[in-house]
Amino acid sequence: MSLIRASRLLRLSTTPALRLSSSKACPPPSQDKPNFPCVDAHAARESKLIASRAPRFEVTDNADTGPEPAYARPNPTTYHTYHHPHPLPLTYSTTPLPAFDIAYETWGTLSPERDNVILIHTGLSASSHAASTPANPAPGWWEKFIGPGKAIDTNQFFVICTNVIGGCYGSTGPSSIEKATGKPWATRFPIISVFDMVNAQFHLLDHLKIHKLYASVGCSMGAMQSLAAGWLHPDRVGKIVSISGTARSSPSAVAMRFAQRAVLMADPNWNNGFYYDGLPPHTGMKLARQIATITYRSGPEWDLRFGRQLRTLPSDATTQSSSAASMDASYPSQSRSPALCPDFLIETYLDHQGESFCLKYDANSLIYISKAMDLFDMTLPALQALNIRRRVPHQSAELSPSQAQPHKTSHSKSHPPPVNPPAYLPSLAAGMAPLAKIPTLVLGVQSDILFTVEQQREVADALRMAGNDSVSYYELGGVWGHDTFLIDTLNVGGAIRGFLS
Amino acid sequence: MSLIRASRLLRLSTTPALRLSSSKACPPPSQDKPNFPCVDAHAARESKLIASRAPRFEVTDNADTGPEPAYARPNPTTYHTYHHPHPLPLTYSTTPLPAFDIAYETWGTLSPERDNVILIHTGLSASSHAASTPANPAPGWWEKFIGPGKAIDTNQFFVICTNVIGGCYGSTGPSSIEKATGKPWATRFPIISVFDMVNAQFHLLDHLKIHKLYASVGCSMGAMQSLAAGWLHPDRVGKIVSISGTARSSPSAVAMRFAQRAVLMADPNWNNGFYYDGLPPHTGMKLARQIATITYRSGPEWDLRFGRQLRTLPSDATTQSSSAASMDASYPSQSRSPALCPDFLIETYLDHQGESFCLKYDANSLIYISKAMDLFDMTLPALQALNIRRRVPHQSAELSPSQAQPHKTSHSKSHPPPVNPPAYLPSLAAGMAPLAKIPTLVLGVQSDILFTVEQQREVADALRMAGNDSVSYYELGGVWGHDTFLIDTLNVGGAIRGFLS
């Protein structure tokens, strides 16, 4: 129950006594005590946050709503917001979300027939800002892929990108104000699913009077949404692009996201999710991002990019460690001693990735959305267990696992029917049967350790087994791992362009 | 400098005010605030630790030495200790370790010729207790591999296993008392290398009057030590067994160990390493072990073992979440709603692994030894930069990188000379030239993501390139990943038995 509170009291009452007794009984000579800049950085960040918010804490009568944290101060003039005033049914909840906002941006021009729309689904932490706009000229997260003449050609298509519900960039999420209480939802926010995210997007499409998408396009979690869109609304999705995604989150991907949630939730600042009137769990976010970054790139890339190189040491760097650990000794390639703080370039890279992210994104959004990814599973029994009412004309097209058969012809000569398919493949094929008529591009990257190439093959195999004759499947080499979809305009961009044309 | 201290003051002075202001201004109704047992567990553990140590804190005059933490209370009656009263030169330090203890256990009988000795090197966190003994009948960490008639046959061999220096199971490490101060070294302990660990072991061998090892055997970090033993003392090592190790830590392995150190060092209890008179960083240790466990096993194993199964919920489990997150809804395979705390079996498995380890091992030992692993690099320039004086008769046998050539004959038909060797392979071959005359078994596992199979091939290739005609190389399939060496008695045990006979 209130162990956390008890602990906090303990921390306040008992721990200082320990420290006191400690500093009284055994004070290590300060000149002899090593410094750890990588650890001090957390405290420095905390002090800076406190200082930057000092005025707020003086205005106690304004504290009941509380200002939004720095990372969750979106500028609503740079994107559109659709407010859906009606309840949104949820997959894992009998109580719907009472209402929601969805932030979106658009590029290109909607055709008079409203038939040139591409909906772009984002990965975990991205905003609706997929590419620069007049209202927000900053480069978007997929800037290289969206624009006139680019892979997603805005001379031809009307492109929409939304911030997912559960996010913190303008769409309703845990940091949003719950109308009933006037306070941020925090962890009172309901668990959401990828299907819920997509349902919210289709309410936006309804609002925009767009009946059918030319294509539903997504990478990473966006690929899950892209598949979910086809499953929920097969008659409203013309083509599907699924890049570095999955139709069934694997236990190893769950493990890697679990590790991130665990470090985040262990940060005392997280406070069971109720930190919006205090300090955000910036240390936990930094640590979580460091772990995430390991899963986004690949060992082969780091071999090439960093190898075993050490960070460049400032000439006056005497603070790394003041004592034993910095004794002057020879050290591979450089005449200095190793340190316990980041020392190899790969370490400083991860440290930097964590530092630059830790105040950019809402911790609760990370927790809720990463959980939604874990829960994603398109095998038939998993889908049947969900609280989802699909309004699909062709329910009869769905197969039972026993009915699903390996499809006779393979769309791609480079990818024959699987030799050793996982036991659940028929069940996945049965679950994905509603997508049998939708041309689908499945693209994966061999160096991706988060959404492995086996999972890409699985998506393609399940679609083919479900009877989909129009599966385009590509496997990319290269060393960029999961992040390839952000980088490789030549190959990822080329495949998308070819598939959309 | 004292940012950490400043932060601690801030935490004590400012943060409570925030909480106060928070709880005054916006108190979420307690019946509406979700509970998180996985987070409460940290506080509960802390309370339990405080309670178990309460008497100590009352005895302030005894506080200058402080009792050892629970995980570092080795029982010296269950192992032997060799005290080396002379300084041990260190790789990265001009100041030697003034003296050291090394804990060890033995199995089997030393032959009159003292020529049947096998030295077993441990992985990161293991003790000298590799197998049960009369003094300590508990199963050892390699119980299935050591004993009469087993892969390492104690009817034939006299087997020694030590706790490495830097460790916390009886050998000198950061938790040991520094004689000059009468206090634990903590992070005043010097950075150590794998070579330092091996040097200490050879002082033990000198003490035991064992000139030459029949074999030096190690897995994981133990494999690094095994190779280092051959490099430091080629005339004293008869055979080398290197299982799931490396001769050059890769940036991706460094990344995964960095993530563990980072979460550990961010735990406020870590206190820059000076926690021995306070509470250990048990939360950081749990989080670090969770990350480590991900690298020790493999996705394919988890697919088979856990799949997407959910944990079994106690029938009366109403505490998982008291509000939104536990609303009654259908959920894959089970009629309950998902939770933000561990929910899938893979999550509860990782949680359990972390929980059961977090008070077993010293956090500073983990930091120092994992750093030693990162620093391990047998390429010639890296070795030349070290502060190591090898007393080797055949220094002339060493090759320059340009002299090293792919060896003409390959020992194993299954492993021809590499097609695309890494650029540093000649440099690694040159560095490993002192091992050219030592028969070596190199064994790796294809599902190992920490010490990848590419690194196993690298060790074998470098040895062959250095002119070693007696390299036995095995690559195992199977799903157990890095931990295979703890599990697979049939294949790992068989290869060892065959190689040693």
TrEMBL record, chains A, B:
Compositional bias of kind Polar residues: 397-407
Record-linked InterPro entries: AB_hydrolase_1, AB_hydrolase_fold, HAT_MetX-like
Residue span, AB hydrolase-1 domain: 117-454
Record-annotated active site: 220 (nucleophile), 448, 482
Positions of region (Disordered): 56-79, 314-334, 394-420
Annotated GO biological process: cysteine biosynthetic process from serine; homoserine metabolic process; methionine biosynthetic process
Gene Ontology terms for molecular function: homoserine O-acetyltransferase activity; serine O-acetyltransferase activity
Biased composition (Low complexity): 315-330
Gene3D superfamilies the UniProt entry points to: alpha/beta hydrolase (3.40.50.1820)
GO cellular component, as recorded: mitochondrion
Family: Belongs to the AB hydrolase superfamily. MetX family.
HAMAP family cross-referenced by the UniProt entry: MetX_acyltransf
Name of this protein: AB hydrolase-1 domain-containing protein
Source organism per UniProt: Agrocybe pediades
